[in-house]
Amino acid sequence: MTGVPAGRTRPGAWGGLLLRALFVVALPALLFTLWWLASDDSTDVYWPPLRTILRTFPDVWTRARLRADLLPSVLRLLAGYALAAVAGVGLGTVVGSYRRVRAVCEPVLEFLRAVPPPVLVPVIMLFAGIGDTMKIVVIASGCVWPVLLNTIEGVRAVDSVMSETARSYGVTGAARIRSVVLPSASPQIFAGLRQALSVGIILMVISEMFAASNGLGFTIVQFQRGFAIPDMWTGILVLGLLGFVLSVVFRLVERRVLGWYHGLRDSSRRSP
Amino acid sequence: MHASLVVSGLRKVYEGSGRRVEAVRDLTFTVDAGELVCLVGPSGCGKTTLLKCMAGLLAPTSGEVLLGGRRVSGPPPGMAFVFQEYGRSLFPWMRVGENVELPLRQKKLGRARRGELVADALESVGLADAAGAYPWQLSGGMQQRVAIARALAYEPEVLLMDEPFAAVDAQTRADLEDLVRRLWRERGITVLFVTHDIDEAVYLGERVLVLSASPTVVQEQLKVDLPAERDQLHTRVSPRFAELRTRVYEQIQAAKRGEPAVEDVPPPR
Amino acid sequence: MNPTSPRGGGPCGRAVNAALGAAGLAAFLALGEAVPRLGLVEERFFPPTSRIARALVDEFADRAFWTDLGDTLTGWALGLAIAVGAGIVAGVVVSVVPYLREATASTIEFLRPIPSVALIPLAVLLYGTELRSVLLLVVYASFWQVLVQVMYGVRDVDPVAEETARSYGLGTWARIRHVLWPTALPYVMTGVRLAAAVALILTVTAELVIGAPGLGARIAVAQTSQAVPELYALIVVTGLLGLLINVGARSVERYALAWHQSVRGEVTV
Question: Which of A68, A119, B256, C63 is the most buried (most CB within 10 A)?
Answer without folding.
Answer: A119
